Amino acid sequence: MDTKWKSSLFVMMTCTILFTVGLIGILFLSNYGYFYAQKDYFHTSEFRHGVVDEYIRYLGVFELNNLSLKEAKAAITVSDAEIDDHRYRYGDLPEQIESITNQYEARIEKAMDLDDQQAAEAYIAERDAKIEDITKNFESDEHVESKIIKEKEQKLASYYREKEDFKSEFERYRDSFQYYLKDITSGEVYTNLDNPEEASLDQLNEKNMLFVTKYSILDDNMVQYGITGSGELMDIMSKSDRRLEGKIGVPESLSASNPFMVKYENFKREQIIFWGAVSLSIIALLLSLLIFKRAKKSRAEVSSWSRFYNKLPIDVRVLLLGITGMVTLVVLFLIAEQIYFLLEDPVTHGFLLAIGMLILSAGIAFTIIQAVFLLEAIKDWKNSVQQWQESLLYRMYMMAKKLLLKLIHSLKEAFLDQTTGTQLILVFGLIFILGLSAVLIVIHPIFVFLYIILLGVVGIPIMMIIINKIGYFNRIVENTNELAAGNLSKDLDVVGKTAFATLASNINLLKQGVKISQNEQAKSERLKTELITNVSHDLRTPLTSIITYTELLKKQRDISEDSTAYLEIIDRKSKRLKVLIDDLFEVSKMASGNIELKKEKVDLVQLLQQALAEYDDIINESNLTFRVSNDTQPINAVVDGQKLWRVFDNLIGNILKYSLDNSRVYINLSAEDGKAIISFKNVSKYELNENSEELFERFKRGDVSRNTEGSGLGLAIAQSIVDLHQGSLEITTDGDLFKVTISLYLQE
Q: 3-class secondary structure for 620-660?
């Protein structure tokens, strides 16, 4: 019996292996049949559309387009549009001068605080030089034109340097191709044939060439794309709208060591192996079908294994069939893709392929056997119900049913108010009795009068009670919605002692509490605003006197150097205090709504770039890495540009003050659903409170030690400005990650 079992297993495995070989052969044929059906390597798509196209690109750059760097520089032109674009790149003249002044103001002030007069004078000289250069941009087109020409010359020099890096690639192809191309406009001939003056297009024909094809080359194919700036320099490097037509081919005279001839010979060898392997695989497939048809005893022996397989639940069998089928398909396609490498290394890949085929054969056999056994089980309808009841899914269904019944029981216990529960059950019971009583009409017409009486005595009162309760409940819901929206309407009527009456009474109490809380909050906010306004106003008078007398003392000539230095410090600190007081007054005005916005159409992308440009030097000196991304198109909104610039300025300043050293800062500006979304993300150097709303409070900072120069009013001012624009400013914190998101409506 054991020998018989082994014999049957051997026959079935042999049949499966042969079937697997045939199946892989068919997949191999479908994947690579077109490739190896070509005449030779030079007629394959790999050569025609890969090698030839690449050679044409290099040929156009290094031989057909012989424009030198000097000639390219001489061909540079500058249009009026380019001049205007360069001139107004960062705004008009006043805006650019103001931007440069603001960039250097902080550095000059810092140098003066450190009594570093030399550094301060250097910053002033650098600032004045930039302002002078920007002023010349608006006074002279020639000044701008010379700068643009210099930029283009630098790009050209960079292009020609990078182009030389590709020359080695062209050298690989130079001796492998022959070409004859003619300019259809000028008649100029380009060729690498012997005796160019006597060469003709007829020399490139199929009789004396391994490969020849017609080709047409446009002028824009003679610029090396992929090099930095190549697209921008196209108008300079392109001579004209040239069009070259001719032939390109591979000569028969190539040496056997030429890389393409090596591939040519390898292709012929692989072609023979490929078609031989495909033929053998088809024979193996036919042989497997013949063996399977005649091996009746072996099939019967394998069928006897079903009694072990059918002990598994039917849903497990279906799942197992799906898994083995999917795994078998994956292995099959992996082998079909990797079998190509068998031609390159028959030993290594042949061994791996043999192991893969054994695994695949076992998978195919296991999948087919499972499918046959499962079909036989499904055909037996008598046992199908019993098999379903023994399945895992059915058991899970029964467990879910028990859980549902338990849930229903829990819902019944949810009637904590026994009065309400009793009333509800009573109403449902009476409605059920009314419905059941309608059946009496069918028994005898006399019961119609009895049913009408019952309907009038019981049905109509129940209907009125339900309508009244629903109306009362809807009034409670409506009043609650008004309360949630912040509208304190009149109190609800408390009728009876039902659960609805208790709920209405509690809502009235909550409403009174909300009124008291709102009044107290409004009073507190009003007092706070008045306090800030009065303090700001009262501080201005003595501070103005300090600044005035400081200026008078600075004009005295007989003051010592130490006294002069002290006066400078007093002057700077008093001016800083004046800025702080102005911020306090501005916060107070915004909180009271007593401020006017000068709204106009503003490009938010440009406004953000200007704000970043003013911090450009500080950003470069810092160890922070800024990543700024925005839509390429302008994002326009009707806003007060000066006020919104103050928002960006405050946020960028906070980032520079409070970001963790050597971290990244992400700024993103995009348009979504009619809104502009601006986000600022950075990692804080100080530990953040989990309650991000506290950061909007006046004088509140992430730096709890208060060892920075911030006033604590930046975020409060930013939020007030955004609120005045009917936008939103949100702060989110995740650990030490700090994110500010601004949302503004776009121009319709």
A: HHCCCEEEEEECCCCCEEEECHHHHHHHHHHHHHHHHHHEC
